[in-house]
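New to this. Help decode the following:
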Amino acid sequence: MEKVTNVAVLIDAENVASHSAKQIFDEASNYGNIMVKRIFADWSKTSVRGWKEEVNRYSMTAVQQFEVQARKNTTDIALIIQALLILFEKDVDVFCIAAGDSDYTRLVRELRERDKIVIGLGGRNVNQSYVNAFNEFIYLDAGEEKPAAPKRERGKGGKAQAAQPAPAPQESEIIDNKRKSDLHNIIDRMIDNNGKAFYAQISSEMKQKYSDFIPKNFGCNSFKKLMEKLTPYLKKYSIGTEADGTTMYLYRSSKK
């Protein structure tokens, strides 16, 4: 019988929003059987009140950690201790850590050194060195917050006027210049060696450099879709397909 892959989900409720609960467990279930579900916080704080309903919905074990002294990372320490106990006491293969705190970087390294797969989940404002400590890092959705109603301003004569809406922010590029450069270097090296840069190899090498370089973080459901999205940055290459019709690669285009 094939061994079941067991997963532990550990959530720092003090720096992950409660509306991310469904996404966290949906993602964690993709890696195997969720054996452990634990969430950590000082539950006397009003800031984590939204998690209480999710704790019941997903049958999590809520761990209470009172804040002994202001600005001390007591919740972080509690999560780290529990992760190490799980490591040595339970048959867990994958750790999913939902937190945006770089204080967990050392824990991630220790788990990976013991041949565990460690998946990070957090916001897009986290430190890149923390992101790259994981095997994979998945960005949590921002949630569906309704925009605030425009304020009413007083014009001449005291009449109320609707405030002008702020201009929409320009959409940022899908990848930054450093990633563009690394992506081109990887593709060029593969083509120099084999004449082809296969999608699977590109994906593997880019993820070794950037743990968050996975399709879902770019709104794609496959690496093929992600490569299509990146096409504007890959103009000097053309797409090829092997005889099996599914294995895709890039080669240098003859077009100038």
